[in-house]
Every structure is written in C-alpha cells, then in structure tokens.
Amino acid sequence: MFSKRSRWALPYFIFLVLFVLVPLVLIAGYALTDANGHFTLSNLAAFFTDGKILNSFLVSLEIALENTLICILLGYPVAYILADKNYNKSAVTALLFILPMWINALMRTMATAEIFNTLGISLGKGTLLFGMVYDYLPFMIYPIYTVLNKMNKSYAEAAQDLGASPVTVFFKITLPLSMPGVLSGVLMVFMPTVSTFAISEILTNNTIQLFGSVIQEQFYNMMWNQGAALSLVMLIIIGISTLITPQKEDQAEGGLI
Q1: Residue 130 and residue 109: Cα distance in Å, rounded?
Q2: What b/e string do you get for 221-251 counting C-beta neighbours within 10 Å, with b at 16 or more?
Q3: Residues 61-77: pLDDT tens digits?
Q4: What is the radius of gyration, based on Cα positions, of the chain?
C-alpha cells in the first residue's frame, strides 16, 4: 500500500481537503450569496460602503502599524543581544522570551486587564497597544533572532578588518542581512493584529472595535453571508501580504547573493 513515497502524503492531503479547502469553499459560497442562496456581490460591497465596517478596518490598520513598529523597536535590540555571543552565552536566555507563548493568549490578556483594573488604569487604546505588544513581541523576536543567529559572521569581521566602525558594520552588513527575519516578524505581527478581536474586547471593554470584532459580531448576529464576505476580504489581504513578502533567506544564511 505504501510502496510509493507519495502515498505517505495521503493523510495530510485528506486533512487539507477537509479542514482547509472545504471551509474556504464554504466561506466563498456564503460570501457570494444572499440569505436565499442567490448570487450577489452586495456582501463584499458592504466592506467599501458600510461606514462602521470601513472605519473598524482603518482603526485596525492603525493599531496594527503601531503595534508592529513598537515590536520592531523593542524586538530587534533584544534579538540582536540574544544572537550576539559577546552578550549572551546561553540559549536559556532566548527561551525566557518564548516562555509566555506557552500560556494561553486569552489567559495572558485577561491577566493583563486585571492588572490594569487593580492599578486603576482606564482601559483604552494605550492598554490595547500594551496588550498587543505583550502578546506579539515574541513573534517579532524569534524570527529576527533565528536569522541573526544563522548569519555568516565573516562579512562583519571582514568589514571590521577593513576599518569599518561598529555602526557602519551594523547598517551596511547586519541590518540588510537580517531583513528576511524582520519581514517575517512583521507578517507574523501585523496580520494577526488586524484580525484579532478578543484582545481588543478585553483590554478596551469593547470601546475600540477592530476588524476581527466586526466579523465576530456578524456571525454572532447570525449574519453569516456578510460575516463570510468580511472573512474572505481578510483572507485575500493575508494572501496578498504573504505573496509579496520575500520568502528566501539566502542573504541571511550564506551571503549577499
């Protein structure tokens, strides 16, 4: 039965069909039909014409951009220090930054909200950004750390031998070679931030509605077709973002080619 190696992929293929392809087809089917099952584009058009939906999407983009920028500013120095043997000689230190990911994100968010309530801090955009950074910072640190850790150090050493200053080495060698990790981190932070809903509801008392909250609200109110349409829009945006993100890490692993 398993004489051909390709047959070992059969369980994975069945899993993809049942739990990836079929749900996507159902989402597309609901998105392109009305409550009576007739073909329509009105559900998709609501994304551009409904002020509440469009406003929530723009707010989501704003929060996602701010969260991603903060994660880069905090995550890159941490990843750089973790990957530099002169500063960090133990892999345990890197593990400490990954430990929060072992705890359920919802539990972390609820604990963060309780801390703010105990301290008497009003929930709003500031607390939302704090929670976003807290939840997604490891997703920025780890890909950058991985690329920096695998980086060929001979280029930096050669530049130093030729008289380049540490600042020049960083901006001319280290930073360009680490960009694949930065781009991976951006993708892993930006898109989940746009589509999340639980974090915003808990850390703002639902006063700030992100795009994911609007989608969740559509399904909660049994508006399956419009909810599916907004989900389809989100999937298209994620797909486009994935396609335009460079996937090769040749520069980080081996060289400048």
Answers
A1: 10
A2: eebbbbbbbbbbbbeebbeeeeeeeeeebeb
A3: 999 999 999 999 999 99
A4: 22
State percent of the chain over pLDDT 70. 91
Structure tokens at 162: 């030729």
Backbone phi, then psi, for 51, in 5-degree steps? -60, -40
Instruction: Give φ, ψ of 39 to 5 degrees.
Output: -65, 135
Task: Report pTM.
Answer: 0.84
CA 151 to centroid of chain Cα atoms: 23
- The 10s digit of each residue's pLDDT in 121-177 is 999 999 999 999 999 999 999 999 999 988 888 888 888 888 888 899 999 999 999
